[in-house]
Design goal:
The complex is a heterodimer. Chain A is of the alpha/beta class. Chain A has one domain. Chain A has 5 helices and 11 strands. Chain A has a 6-stranded parallel beta barrel. The termini of chain B are far apart. Helix content of chain B is 29%, strand content 29%. Chain B has a single domain, classed as Vaccinia Virus protein VP39 (Rossmann fold, 3-Layer(aba) Sandwich), CATH 3.40.50.150. Chain B is an alpha/beta fold. Chain B is globular, with a radius of gyration of 16 Å. In chain B, the strands form 2 sheets. A 6-stranded mixed beta sheet of chain B has the order 3-2-4-5-9-8, sandwiched between helices. Chain B has a 3-stranded antiparallel beta sheet with strand order 1-7-6. Classes of the chains: A alpha/beta, B alpha/beta. Chains A and B meet through strand 10, strand 11 and helix 5 of A and helix 2 and strand 3 of B. Strand 11 of chain A pairs antiparallel with strand 3 of chain B, so a sheet runs across the interface.
Chain lengths: 189, 220
């Protein structure tokens, strides 16, 4: 039967990606090492999700809330509109996509943060970064490229009556991704 | 370790006079014609790829990305320490083919023509001749034609050790230097030896500063 609370906690992503919801996360240990009551309250009252330091996960993680990882992940992590914190014990061998990424532990993999990435002292990140803003504390180790993606200004509704430009515009838009940048991104591994 | 080769860490006698010397470990500020020339060569261009050997720093990242460029950060001093620092002599270890290959793989494993500029700072002077030439040749390979490379070499012939710094860009012609430690330079470089070292490149330009630092701008 449908359980409302379960639905809130584990609500699947809206059909945005062709990923079978069931097959993506393989756990070798419980999701959190913090003891939580079995009838846990909803995410609003229990704080951000947490993967504890005794946890290792191989596979893909998708989250629709902020997530703190202090364990080991081998795969990929996506929290498109949320914040990912990699705790001091966290070790990610994973590609990461999030709104904001805070690194206190280790990431081996490319990181895409639509808003900001914050690499703290003693953190280690080996991989390419694409973000709008970056903060690196002295003492952090980083090896890789940094591509600052300026936030796109939302276009006003396209001018309706310009049939002449209509054919040229899409081509111009798609070519605005700098080839040099793209090439270097591929090359940096 | 590279650190073990310290003769007298941050010895004041080795600090050059014109520098506003602070306490050991405190950043020093100085102007640099070489840095100025390097950034002049990037002017009016956007979306270039710049290789920075000084490791990740907020200052360098902000400065270069604010110019509209992409930066690739790599702490080559750390890579040297990892490759040659353990067991035996730091310089002798550089002649070990396996260690040398590991260093090159770790630091310069990029496709041909990946970068439009390289800030190698003072790292080259701590490499022994066979590996030094390999490193310079690899840099030539990964730079695009007309790309600029900025390198510093200590010009004090009789110096027993040279300070190893972390370089931070303050402005296009001002940088901040934070001493890391003192290291014995592997060899002394004069203009002639530098021309020979960079013979595969298109041009070499020198700036000799009052504080015994030879700033070199090389054009691929």
């Amino acid at each position: 039967m449908w359980n409302k609370r379960k639905e809130e906690e584990y609500s699947p992503k809206p059909a945005q990606a062709p990923i079978p919801a069931s097959s993506q996360t393989k756990e070798t240990a419980p999701m959190s090492s913090n003891p939580t009551p079995s009838h846990a309250p909803t995410s609003e009252s229990r704080g951000p999700a947490n993967i504890g330091k005794a946890v290792m996960i191989k596979g893909q993680i998708f989250s629709r809330e902020d997530l703190t990882i202090d364990g080991e992940i081998d795969g990929s992590v996506e929290l498109h509109e949320h914040r990912l914190t990699v705790g001091p014990n966290g070790k990610l061998q994973a590609g990461v996509k999030a709104r904001e990424v805070v690194v206190l532990g280790t990431i081996h993999g490319n990181v895409e943060a639509s808003d900001k990435i914050d690499i703290r002292k003693d953190a280690k990140l080996v991989g390419d970064i694409k973000t709008a803003r970056i903060v690196i504390e002295d003492g952090a180790y980083f090896k890789g490229s940094i591509d600052i993606a300026r936030p796109e200004v939302s276009k006003p509704a396209a001018a309706p009556a310009q049939p002449k430009a209509a054919s040229a515009a899409p081509a111009a838009h798609s070519s605005s991704a700098t080839p040099a940048t793209a090439a270097a991104a591929d090359s940096s591994r | 370790m590279l650190k073990d080769r310290l003769s007298d860490p941050f010895s004041p006698s080795l600090h050059s006079p014109p520098r506003k010397s602070g306490a050991p470990g405190q950043p020093l500020s100085r102007s640099s014609h070489g840095l100025d020339q390097f950034f002049s060569s990037l002017q009016d261009q956007e979306s270039l790829s710049i290789l920075d050997f000084s490791g990740a720093s907020q200052a360098n990242i902000s400065f270069i990305t604010n110019m509209g460029h992409r930066i690739y950060s790599n702490d080559v001093v750390r890579a040297m320490e990892e490759a040659f620092g353990s067991g035996g002599d730091f310089v002798e270890n550089q002649t070990d083919p396996q260690r040398a290959a590991a260093f090159l793989r770790e630091s310069l494993d990029f496709p041909e023509g990946s970068f439009d500029g390289a800030l190698v700072w003072d790292t080259l002077q701590f490499l022994a001749p066979p590996l030094l030439q390999d490193t310079v040749d690899q840099l030539c390979r990964i730079l695009r034609p007309q790309a600029s490379l900025l390198a510093f070499f200590h010009a004090e012939e009789k110096a027993q050790s040279a300070p190893l710094y972390t370089y931070r860009i303050v402005e296009s012609k001002i940088m901040s230097l934070t001493p890391r430690n003192q290291v014995r330079p592997v060899q002394y470089f004069n203009n002639r030896s530098l021309e020979k070292l960079f013979q595969k490149y298109n041009s070499v330009k020198f700036f000799l500063t009052r504080d015994h630092l030879r700033e070199v701008i090389v054009r691929r």
